[in-house]
Amino acid sequence: MKSSIFNVVGDFFALDIGSSAIRVVQLRGGGNNHSLVKYGAAPVDVKVSLSDAPADQKKISDLIAALVSEVGISTRNVVVGLPSNKTFVTIVDLPKMSPQELKGTIKYQADQYIPMSADEAKINSVILGDSPTDPAKMEVLLASVTNKFSEQRMEMLEGIGLDVIALEPEAIALARALTPSNNTSAQMIIDMGEYATDIVITSSGAPRLVRSIPTGGQSLLKAAMQNLNIDENQARQFVYKFGLDSSKLEGQINRALLSTVEVVSSEVQKSIKFFNSRYPNTPLAGIVTTGAAALLPGFHQYISQAAGNIPVQAGNTWQNVSYSNGAHEQLMSVNHQFAVAAGLAQRSGE
């Protein structure tokens, strides 16, 4: 098992094992010239995806094998996303040194920066540039995942004949997909999944802040079910049809969801405050959303107001990828679902 976070070589496809769906994307080319080759998704039972039971893991691997075959992906090399609840990503300031020296330093000092034992984790680092607070230091992105989780994931995939050539935190893939290739400004990404919302602030395309909170689409559904005494199917219809629009159904849905959405907006405000204090000369130009956050009516306006009227819009997962005109409508219909997979697929060897 030679895989480590970030490293990629040769032809590969991207795999995003989500809580409600499995997604794959294969691109051709590199740098700023990626073209879409294959993509596809398969729904998965949430109870199965969240289970560590061998029988359920077998179901997941069978679904992946079937999806890869159905989509027509021929390469066996795969880059796999690591969910935010299984990874730790942070930005630290360290004395300036070479990449080689950094590897040695991280090896012996990792316990200061990550919430897991360095001996029991895969750790990688990327130098982002000079520290914004101390010219004698450099800014370094650290990412870690436990050996146990990464090895379980690799064994599962190797069991169906795939070769895991890289593991990457979803937050980094999001930043790659949802930041325009020529963008040098700062922006926030809000990705609301079923069980968590990831908040990433990027500057010049690189993550500068990564946070995750255990509030997601399921939290919205539960709030609607409990406050309105309706079943899950009704809740889903109401939440994604009316959302935070206070003019619909006498504002009942808005009121039912407000306290849950406030958890997300509070974290957005804290993240902006932290970013502005660390990067006072880099204003946040905008906020983009994906996942459930891109579908919830009224969410963009609500977050924009909470963030001091910073513009908010749905992110374009495919903005750095070329594809045929005939594929546009279908790709836009699943735009909010594929940000992680598309970002993983745009990974180049570094």
What does this structure look like?
With 350 residues, the protein is an alpha/beta fold. It is 36% helix and 29% strand. The chain has a domain at 182-318: Nucleotidyltransferase, domain 5 (2-Layer Sandwich), CATH 3.30.420. The chain contains 11 helices and 14 strands. The strands form 3 sheets. It has a 6-stranded mixed β-sheet with strand order 8-4-1-2-3-14, with helices on both faces. It has a 5-stranded mixed β-sheet with strand order 11-10-9-12-13, sandwiched between helices. α6 packs across α7 (232-242). 41% of the residues are buried.
Brief overview:
This protein has helices at 46-49, 54-71, 99-109, 147-158, 170-178, 217-228, 232-242, 252-278, 299-306, 328-333, 339-345; strands spanning 13-17, 21-28, 34-43, 77-82, 87-95, 121-130, 137-146, 163-169, 186-192, 197-203, 206-213, 284-291, 312-314, 321-322. With 350 residues, the protein is an alpha/beta fold.
Task: Name the features.
350 residues; alpha/beta; Nucleotidyltransferase, domain 5; six-stranded mixed beta sheet; five-stranded mixed beta sheet; 11 helices; 36% helix; disordered N terminus
Q: Strand count, sense and closure of the main sheet?
A: 6 strands, mixed
Distance between the termini: 19 Å
In quaternary terms, these chains amount to single chain
By CATH reckoning, the class of the domain at 182-318 would read Alpha Beta
- Structural class per helix/strand content? alpha/beta
Q: On the 0-100 scale, what is the average pLDDT?
A: 92
* Strands, total number: 14
Helices, by number, come to 11
H/E element order: EEEHHEEHEEHEHEEEHHHEHEEHH
Indicate the CATH topology of the domain at 182-318.
Nucleotidyltransferase, domain 5
User: What share of residues is helical?
Assistant: 25-40%
The largest sheet has its strands arranged as 8-4-1-2-3-14
The best one-word shape is globular
Kindly estimate the percentage of residues that lie in beta strands according to DSSP: 25-35%
State the low-pLDDT regions, or none: 1-9
Rg from Cα: 20 Å
Could you state the CATH homologous superfamily of the domain at 182-318?
ATPase, nucleotide binding domain
The CATH level-2 architecture of the domain at 182-318 is identified as: 2-Layer Sandwich
